[in-house]
């Protein structure tokens, strides 16, 4: 899931997502070199939200 999709789906602000990253939510490396899109695994997000 892209960062943009996650922000929209959960109706959260970019600063909230940044805070989650600082507290342990992992980003995925872009599958294409030079790509600036940020990705997250749905499973990782769900685990983070339920811990």
UniProtKB/TrEMBL annotation:
Span-the-membrane segments of this chain are none
The record's section on InterPro entries has: DNA-bd_dom_put_sf, MerR-type_HTH_dom
Which biological process terms from the Gene Ontology are attached to this UniProt entry? regulation of DNA-templated transcription
| Residues covered by the HTH merR-type domain | 1-48
This protein's superkingdom?
A: Bacteria
The molecular function GO annotations come to: DNA binding
Name of the protein: HTH merR-type domain-containing protein
Source organism per UniProt: Pseudolactococcus plantarum
Lineage summary? Bacteria, Bacillati, Bacillota, Bacilli, Lactobacillales
């Amino acid at each position: 899931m892209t960062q943009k999709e996650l922000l929209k789906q959960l109706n959260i602000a970019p600063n909230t997502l940044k805070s989650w990253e600082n507290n342990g939510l992992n980003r995925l490396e872009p599958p294409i070199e030079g790509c600036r899109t940020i990705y997250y695994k749905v499973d990782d997000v769900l685990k983070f939200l339920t811990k």
